[in-house]
TrEMBL record:
One of its GO terms (molecular function) is glycosyltransferase activity. Residues 1-36 are annotated as: Disordered. The chain crosses the membrane at residues 45-68. PANTHER family: GLYCOSYLTRANSFERASE 8 DOMAIN-CONTAINING PROTEIN, LIPOPOLYSACCHARIDE 1,3-GALACTOSYLTRANSFERASE. The keyword Transmembrane applies. This is Hexosyltransferase. One of its GO terms (cellular component) is Golgi apparatus. It comes from the Eukaryota. The keyword Membrane applies.
């Protein structure tokens, strides 16, 4: 037994005692190779091709974009930029999508016009209208902006804020051309341009047969479905009365009496004008173009010439052209100035002061600034992320 134990222990000792290989000697003899071989040196021609490919990719970034992805498209399909009907923007003519939607029962078309573009105001108008609507998916916005179809960025910004809304942008050029041609050679108050546009739009966009026109500086707290359902009877226009501005504030009553007795025009009243009559508020209009009088522009221009209007009487001609020719909407649709949050909560239609803007011709370079009177109630109706998307 003891001899066996000694033998096994001696054998184990012999194995442990075996000297390890000498690493220095092995390295010096060159018997061990490196784990990773050095990288091969590429040929100069491949280096040149690789550098050229990188430069090619850099220059691709400077090419104009030809396609885009619709913000509300769940499939994120690429659509050519020249396909204007794909994203609901039209320049001047009628769009196929607008014509399609106009034939659908129950659609409420809301139109607004901006000479000097400020997307914040359009966002406030859309957000207040949709928030108050009973059926927001049936509200269809038509925004007429200076650049129209060329301003795709404005459309995308609005669609990001209102991805599920029905929204189109239109150009103003064709409407402007009609008005400019009609007023050629006549004295015309330039700031009244926006007030004439709602009555010309249906002749250009014939798909808009019955619609609500809303000025961009309006908070719409009433349900537009109720307004569009108002029966206009034989009238083509519905408007709320503004009794803070009487007729004699726009035109001298004696002059008006002389015109009424001497002129024989279809748009001149057959009975004497009521000097203390309330005037229509042009901020919110209900228009049925199928009943719209074709000589409205002629009446407007005639009153402008006869009264020799200047800038101080900029909308007197429109007030006289609409005299007794519009349906007086209920007092609930009267436009109320925004003075306090309590006032806003208790009224349907609120007018707020437009923030001051620096605007180039046709509004192509609008730069919004802080409102001069400090009344920023309208900012509470901006949708979330507006500052980041539209700018403050």
């Amino acid at each position: 037994m003891s001899s066996s134990y000694q033998s096994s222990r001696s054998s184990a000792t012999h194995r442990r005692a075996a000297p390890p290989p000498n690493a220095n000697n092995a390295a010096s003899s060159g018997s061990v190779r490196q784990d990773v071989d050095p990288a091969p040196t590429p040929r100069p021609v491949f280096r040149f091709l690789g550098f050229g490919f990188i430069i090619f990719l850099v220059f691709l970034q400077f090419l104009p974009a030809t396609h885009f992805r619709h913000p509300s498209d769940p499939l994120r399909r690429w659509t050519p930029f020249d396909d204007s009907t794909a994203f609901g923007a039209t320049s001047d003519g009628n769009s196929s999508s607008a014509a399609k939607n106009s034939r659908e029962d129950g659609m409420v078309h809301v139109v607004s016009w901006m000479d000097c573009l400020d997307l914040r105001l359009l966002a406030v108008l859309a957000n207040s209208t949709l928030s108050s609507s009973r059926y927001p998916h049936l509200v269809f916005f038509h925004f007429f902006i200076p650049k129209g179809n060329e301003d795709k960025v404005s459309f995308f910004k609005l669609k990001v804020l209102f991805p599920h809304s029905n929204l189109e942008i239109h150009g103003q050029q064709e409407v402007r051309e009609i008005i400019t041609t009609a007023i050629s050679g006549a004295q015309f108050a330039g700031s009244s341009f926006v007030e004439v546009a709602p009555f010309i739009i249906p002749s250009v966009h014939q798909s808009l047969t019955k619609f609500i026109y809303i000025s961009p500086n309006i908070l719409m707290k009433g349900k537009v479905e109720d307004l569009i359902g108002t029966a206009l009877s034989n009238y083509a226009i519905g408007a709320a009365e503004d009794c803070s501005r009487k007729l004699d504030m726009f035109v001298n009553s004696n002059v008006l009496d002389v015109i009424q007795r001497s002129a024989s025009k279809p748009w001149v009243s057959e009975t004497p004008y009521a000097k203390n009559a309330c005037t229509p508020d042009l901020s919110v209009l209900l228009i049925d173009s199928t009943k719209l009088d074709g000589d409205f522009v002629d009446a407007f221009l005639w009153w402008s010439k006869v009264l020799n209007l200047n800038e101080s009487g900029k909308n007197s001609a429109i007030v006289l052209a609409l005299y007794n020719k519009y349906l007086k909407l209920s007092n609930s649709w009267s436009v109320t100035p925004a003075t306090s949050s309590e006032m806003i909560n208790n009224t349907r239609v609120i007018r707020y002061d437009i923030p001051n803007s620096v605007c180039s011709q046709f509004g192509s370079g609008a730069t919004p600034q802080v409102s001069g009177n400090g009344n920023n109630i309208w900012k509470h109706y901006l949708p979330p992320m507006s500052d980041q998307i539209l700018g403050s």
